[in-house]
Amino acid sequence: MEHQLVRKPRVLCLHAFRISGKIFEKQTEVWPEFVREKMDLVFIDAPFPAEGESGVQGEFDPPYYEWFQFNQGAFLSAALPGMQAEVCKQYFISSLLLLYGEKDFGLTNGIELLDSFVDPVVINHPGGHEVPKLDEKGSETMIKFIEKVQELL
What we know:
The chain is an alpha/beta fold.
């Protein structure tokens, strides 16, 4: 019998505002190991040192990073609609796994994303803008999503 290697989906993990890839990786350790081991998680740091306080100060040590400096954020806001249209011409992105807290300040933006995807998968939790612990249902939902992505590899 042949053994076929199953490729793990490689997931690019982009951290939130004024934290770091290392901090984000640490935050995902609340997920069960049997979920984490099914993915090749890649954590990177944003290119700019944070220019203000981090929401995780006191909980995690610096350094903290930001994706955009003020002037670049304004440019990106103006350029984003055109960039999005170009990406959609070249790639068909159909899968979305959205994890959100019911008290998340970005909840509205996350919900608006759902209309852009075919069969989006949602895991919600009672917290805010944070990496949630996955209960049994959340773990099962994430495993099913990972298996769906693996079928595309």
